[in-house]
Amino acid sequence: MAPTALVLGFGNVLLGDDGAGVKVVDHLRAKLSATRYECIDGGTMSFTLLPYVEAAQAMLVADAAELHAPPGSVAMFEGVAMDDFLRSARRRTVHEVGLIDLLDMARLLCCLPSRRALLCIQPGPIGWSETLSPPVATALPKAAALAAAVLGRWRQP
To answer: What's 45's domain CATH number?
Structure first.
């Protein structure tokens, strides 16, 4: 059976808190069934991820984003709210252009998953570091639990 949901982490793990999205997906990978969910470290890629999006029935993206909140704050945006968040202000996420472009390409090809969500973590420092700041590292379990709850809800009829 092919996975029904794509779990995609954006970020550069060599830039401290910028890698929060990838770290959330790493955290989830150990807990989710590989037969139901395809967990991808999207890094800073964009268009090369289109085949994964095309094949997905649902998609959850995790990324560091400007939430105008304390570092480690977590927010979830689903469906149209995800689209609105990404388009509402310039440079909310470091990878915003790539993600918006990826979603627009999927729309043009009529393969944008109707079930989609963006999990955002407010970063602290973004600079050369392979470790997350303490507030963002502390937020990972909460972020992963929120993501797992959304994915679980999507599985309900």
So the answer is: 3.40.50.1450
Residue 130 is given by DSSP the state: S
Phi, psi of 76 (to 5 degrees): -125, 135
- Give just the sign of the alpha carbon dihedral 22, 87, 76, 33: negative
Q: How far apart are CA 68 and CA 141, in angstroms?
A: 21
Q: Where are the beta strands (DSSP E) in the chain?
A: 5-10, 37-43, 58-64, 74-78, 115-121
Q: Which domain holds residue 71?
A: 5-155
pTM over 0.85: yes
Task: State the total domains in the chain.
Answer: 1
Pairing of strands 115-121, 58-64: parallel
- Collect all residues with Cβ–Cβ distance below 8 Å to 70 and sequence separation of at least 6: 122, 135
pLDDT (mean) for 135-153:
95
Determine the pLDDT at residue 94. 52
Q: What is the pLDDT of residues 30-74, one digit of tens each?
A: 888 777 888 998 876 777 888 899 989 999 999 999 999 999 999
